[in-house]
Specification:
single chain, 241 residues, alpha/beta, Rossmann fold, 8-stranded mixed beta sheet, two-stranded antiparallel sheet, 8 helices, 10 strands, globular
Protein backbone atom coordinates (compact mmCIF):
# COMPACT_ATOMS: atom_id res chain seq x y z
CA UNK A 1 0.00 0.00 0.00
CA UNK A 2 1.35 3.47 -0.85
CA UNK A 3 1.90 5.82 2.05
CA UNK A 4 -0.74 8.47 2.75
CA UNK A 5 1.95 11.10 2.24
CA UNK A 6 5.22 11.66 0.38
CA UNK A 7 7.79 13.96 1.94
CA UNK A 8 9.96 15.99 -0.41
CA UNK A 9 12.78 18.30 0.59
CA UNK A 10 10.71 21.49 0.49
CA UNK A 11 7.10 20.31 0.57
CA UNK A 12 4.88 17.42 1.59
CA UNK A 13 2.27 15.66 -0.53
CA UNK A 14 -0.72 14.29 1.33
CA UNK A 15 -2.35 11.75 -0.98
CA UNK A 16 -4.86 9.63 0.97
CA UNK A 17 -7.79 11.06 -1.01
CA UNK A 18 -6.16 10.88 -4.44
CA UNK A 19 -6.66 7.94 -6.80
CA UNK A 20 -3.19 8.30 -8.27
CA UNK A 21 -0.34 8.59 -5.78
CA UNK A 22 3.08 10.17 -6.21
CA UNK A 23 4.95 8.22 -8.88
CA UNK A 24 8.39 8.17 -10.46
CA UNK A 25 6.73 9.16 -13.75
CA UNK A 26 5.28 12.34 -12.31
CA UNK A 27 8.48 13.25 -10.48
CA UNK A 28 10.49 12.86 -13.69
CA UNK A 29 8.03 15.02 -15.61
CA UNK A 30 8.03 17.71 -12.93
CA UNK A 31 11.82 17.82 -12.83
CA UNK A 32 12.52 17.50 -16.56
CA UNK A 33 10.00 19.96 -18.02
CA UNK A 34 11.76 22.98 -19.53
CA UNK A 35 10.52 26.01 -17.59
CA UNK A 36 12.83 28.48 -19.32
CA UNK A 37 10.98 31.74 -19.74
CA UNK A 38 7.79 30.42 -18.13
CA UNK A 39 5.51 33.15 -16.81
CA UNK A 40 2.16 31.43 -16.52
CA UNK A 41 1.84 27.64 -16.23
CA UNK A 42 -1.12 25.25 -16.22
CA UNK A 43 -1.03 21.73 -14.77
CA UNK A 44 -3.85 19.68 -16.32
CA UNK A 45 -5.11 16.82 -14.15
CA UNK A 46 -3.05 17.88 -11.17
CA UNK A 47 -4.11 15.03 -8.83
CA UNK A 48 -2.14 15.62 -5.63
CA UNK A 49 -0.81 18.93 -6.94
CA UNK A 50 2.69 17.47 -7.34
CA UNK A 51 3.57 18.95 -10.75
CA UNK A 52 2.29 22.39 -9.74
CA UNK A 53 4.40 22.30 -6.58
CA UNK A 54 7.51 21.11 -8.39
CA UNK A 55 7.12 23.92 -10.92
CA UNK A 56 6.70 26.45 -8.12
CA UNK A 57 9.89 25.22 -6.43
CA UNK A 58 11.88 25.26 -9.67
CA UNK A 59 10.73 28.67 -10.93
CA UNK A 60 10.55 31.51 -8.42
CA UNK A 61 8.23 33.82 -10.36
CA UNK A 62 5.91 31.67 -12.49
CA UNK A 63 2.18 31.88 -11.69
CA UNK A 64 0.58 28.44 -11.64
CA UNK A 65 -2.96 27.25 -12.20
CA UNK A 66 -4.09 23.62 -12.06
CA UNK A 67 -7.29 21.79 -12.92
CA UNK A 68 -8.57 18.56 -11.40
CA UNK A 69 -11.90 16.91 -12.22
CA UNK A 70 -12.01 14.68 -9.13
CA UNK A 71 -13.46 16.67 -6.22
CA UNK A 72 -11.62 14.82 -3.45
CA UNK A 73 -8.28 15.10 -5.24
CA UNK A 74 -8.90 18.78 -5.89
CA UNK A 75 -9.48 19.41 -2.19
CA UNK A 76 -6.30 17.54 -1.32
CA UNK A 77 -4.26 19.36 -3.98
CA UNK A 78 -5.55 22.69 -2.66
CA UNK A 79 -4.49 21.74 0.86
CA UNK A 80 -1.06 20.60 -0.35
CA UNK A 81 -0.53 23.88 -2.16
CA UNK A 82 -1.74 25.91 0.82
CA UNK A 83 0.72 24.14 3.12
CA UNK A 84 3.65 24.77 0.77
CA UNK A 85 6.01 27.76 0.65
CA UNK A 86 4.39 28.86 -2.64
CA UNK A 87 0.71 29.04 -1.66
CA UNK A 88 0.33 32.52 -3.11
CA UNK A 89 1.37 31.41 -6.61
CA UNK A 90 -0.77 28.26 -7.04
CA UNK A 91 -4.51 28.19 -7.76
CA UNK A 92 -6.35 24.85 -8.02
CA UNK A 93 -9.62 24.65 -9.97
CA UNK A 94 -12.06 21.79 -9.30
CA UNK A 95 -13.24 21.56 -12.91
CA UNK A 96 -13.04 19.39 -15.96
CA UNK A 97 -10.81 20.72 -18.73
CA UNK A 98 -13.89 21.59 -20.79
CA UNK A 99 -15.38 23.54 -17.89
CA UNK A 100 -12.11 25.33 -17.32
CA UNK A 101 -11.83 26.20 -21.03
CA UNK A 102 -15.31 27.73 -20.84
CA UNK A 103 -13.97 30.28 -18.31
CA UNK A 104 -11.65 31.56 -21.10
CA UNK A 105 -8.43 31.74 -19.06
CA UNK A 106 -5.57 33.96 -20.18
CA UNK A 107 -3.03 32.17 -22.40
CA UNK A 108 -0.23 30.13 -20.85
CA UNK A 109 3.47 30.07 -21.61
CA UNK A 110 3.63 26.44 -20.49
CA UNK A 111 1.10 23.63 -20.12
CA UNK A 112 2.15 20.40 -18.43
CA UNK A 113 0.23 17.13 -18.27
CA UNK A 114 0.66 13.48 -17.33
CA UNK A 115 -2.56 12.41 -19.09
CA UNK A 116 -4.55 9.17 -18.78
CA UNK A 117 -3.04 6.63 -21.13
CA UNK A 118 -4.43 3.13 -20.56
CA UNK A 119 -6.59 3.37 -23.67
CA UNK A 120 -7.25 -0.34 -24.29
CA UNK A 121 -6.58 -2.09 -20.97
CA UNK A 122 -9.11 -3.35 -18.42
CA UNK A 123 -10.88 -0.74 -16.34
CA UNK A 124 -10.46 -0.57 -12.58
CA UNK A 125 -13.57 -1.04 -10.41
CA UNK A 126 -12.44 2.12 -8.62
CA UNK A 127 -14.10 4.91 -10.62
CA UNK A 128 -11.66 7.60 -9.47
CA UNK A 129 -8.65 5.48 -10.37
CA UNK A 130 -10.19 4.67 -13.75
CA UNK A 131 -10.64 8.39 -14.47
CA UNK A 132 -7.04 9.07 -13.50
CA UNK A 133 -5.55 6.20 -15.50
CA UNK A 134 -7.72 5.80 -18.62
CA UNK A 135 -8.33 8.11 -21.54
CA UNK A 136 -12.07 8.79 -21.71
CA UNK A 137 -14.05 11.12 -23.94
CA UNK A 138 -16.01 12.51 -20.99
CA UNK A 139 -12.91 13.23 -18.86
CA UNK A 140 -9.61 13.98 -20.63
CA UNK A 141 -9.07 12.65 -24.14
CA UNK A 142 -5.97 13.21 -26.25
CA UNK A 143 -8.09 15.34 -28.59
CA UNK A 144 -9.32 17.52 -25.74
CA UNK A 145 -5.80 18.04 -24.41
CA UNK A 146 -4.35 18.94 -27.82
CA UNK A 147 -7.27 21.22 -28.70
CA UNK A 148 -6.99 23.06 -25.38
CA UNK A 149 -3.25 23.56 -25.80
CA UNK A 150 -3.72 24.86 -29.33
CA UNK A 151 -6.30 27.35 -28.07
CA UNK A 152 -4.62 28.52 -24.86
CA UNK A 153 -0.86 28.36 -25.43
CA UNK A 154 0.97 31.56 -26.25
CA UNK A 155 2.44 31.68 -29.75
CA UNK A 156 5.84 30.56 -28.43
CA UNK A 157 4.36 28.42 -25.64
CA UNK A 158 5.31 24.86 -24.72
CA UNK A 159 3.15 21.82 -23.99
CA UNK A 160 5.00 19.08 -22.07
CA UNK A 161 3.43 15.61 -21.93
CA UNK A 162 4.53 12.24 -20.51
CA UNK A 163 3.24 9.02 -22.10
CA UNK A 164 4.42 5.49 -22.93
CA UNK A 165 5.83 5.20 -26.49
CA UNK A 166 2.71 3.76 -28.24
CA UNK A 167 0.40 6.32 -26.63
CA UNK A 168 2.82 9.13 -27.35
CA UNK A 169 2.82 8.13 -31.02
CA UNK A 170 -0.98 8.38 -31.00
CA UNK A 171 -0.91 11.71 -29.18
CA UNK A 172 1.62 13.14 -31.63
CA UNK A 173 -0.77 12.44 -34.50
CA UNK A 174 -3.56 14.22 -32.62
CA UNK A 175 -1.32 17.15 -31.69
CA UNK A 176 -0.09 17.52 -35.27
CA UNK A 177 -3.66 18.06 -36.44
CA UNK A 178 -3.80 21.13 -34.17
CA UNK A 179 -0.45 22.49 -35.37
CA UNK A 180 1.64 21.29 -32.41
CA UNK A 181 4.88 19.44 -33.21
CA UNK A 182 7.51 17.71 -31.03
CA UNK A 183 10.39 20.06 -30.22
CA UNK A 184 12.12 17.95 -27.55
CA UNK A 185 11.93 14.30 -26.58
CA UNK A 186 13.35 12.64 -23.46
CA UNK A 187 13.44 8.83 -23.69
CA UNK A 188 13.12 7.34 -20.20
CA UNK A 189 14.55 3.84 -19.72
CA UNK A 190 14.64 1.64 -16.64
CA UNK A 191 18.29 0.68 -17.29
CA UNK A 192 20.80 1.59 -20.01
CA UNK A 193 19.99 -0.34 -23.16
CA UNK A 194 16.47 -1.35 -22.11
CA UNK A 195 13.49 -0.32 -24.20
CA UNK A 196 12.07 3.14 -23.44
CA UNK A 197 9.26 3.05 -20.90
CA UNK A 198 8.12 6.65 -21.23
CA UNK A 199 8.56 9.62 -23.55
CA UNK A 200 8.53 13.16 -22.19
CA UNK A 201 7.86 15.39 -25.19
CA UNK A 202 7.73 19.16 -25.46
CA UNK A 203 5.40 20.42 -28.22
CA UNK A 204 5.54 23.80 -29.95
CA UNK A 205 3.72 25.34 -32.90
CA UNK A 206 6.88 25.68 -34.99
CA UNK A 207 9.27 23.02 -33.78
CA UNK A 208 11.73 22.13 -36.55
CA UNK A 209 13.99 19.18 -35.78
CA UNK A 210 13.22 17.31 -32.55
CA UNK A 211 16.03 17.41 -29.97
CA UNK A 212 16.26 13.92 -28.45
CA UNK A 213 17.94 12.92 -25.17
CA UNK A 214 17.85 9.84 -22.94
CA UNK A 215 17.71 9.09 -19.23
CA UNK A 216 18.04 5.76 -17.41
CA UNK A 217 16.44 5.56 -13.97
CA UNK A 218 18.71 2.78 -12.71
CA UNK A 219 22.31 1.77 -13.35
CA UNK A 220 23.22 -1.34 -15.32
CA UNK A 221 24.60 -3.08 -12.22
CA UNK A 222 22.83 -5.92 -10.42
CA UNK A 223 22.29 -3.65 -7.42
CA UNK A 224 20.12 -1.41 -9.59
CA UNK A 225 21.03 1.85 -7.91
CA UNK A 226 19.68 5.12 -9.21
CA UNK A 227 21.72 6.41 -12.15
CA UNK A 228 23.84 9.53 -11.89
CA UNK A 229 21.54 11.44 -14.28
CA UNK A 230 18.43 10.47 -12.31
CA UNK A 231 20.10 11.56 -9.07
CA UNK A 232 21.10 14.88 -10.61
CA UNK A 233 17.61 15.54 -11.96
CA UNK A 234 15.79 14.77 -8.69
CA UNK A 235 18.48 16.00 -6.30
CA UNK A 236 16.45 19.06 -5.31
CA UNK A 237 13.34 17.05 -4.49
CA UNK A 238 13.93 13.57 -3.05
CA UNK A 239 15.04 13.32 0.58
CA UNK A 240 17.44 10.51 -0.24
CA UNK A 241 18.91 9.25 -3.51
Amino acid sequence: MPNDYFQFQQFRIEQADCAMKVSTDACLLGAAADLTGATRLLDIGTGTGLLALMAAQRHATVDIEAVEIDAAASVQATANAAASPWAGRICIHSLSLAEYAATRPAPFSHIICNPPFFRQSLRSPDAARTTARHEAADTLSFDALADFAADFLLADGLLTVLLPPPEMQAFERVAAATGLQPATRLLVRHRPGSRPLRHIVGFRREAGATQETELSIRTATDEGEYSAEFRALLSGFYLAL
